[in-house]
Amino acid sequence: MTVFRANTKSIASDNTFTDAIDPLSGFLAISVSGFSDSPAFSGTITLQRSFDDGLTWKDIENYTADEETMIDAPVAGIFYRLGIKTGNYTSGTANVGLYK
How far is residue 65's CA from residue 74's CA, in Å, rounded to a whole number? Predict the structure, then answer.
């Protein structure tokens, strides 16, 4: 049986992220929206990965437009999160989500 998990967040400030999610291997779906809304979100969304239970984070991908994509998460124990790093927020609200 597959258990569906989702971490979503509406973000309107910098240094704000979703809760971390460990996809337990397989694919992780990523959703970023708000850039085409009215008023539009302006800023950069960053996908980050942690190999040490969230103590340190490495940038994986940046998004500057609406995006629906998937990444391969080949092993358990690696955490992912989406958000806006300090200095990367300009205006509006971004809606982001990680889905397993």
Answer: 26
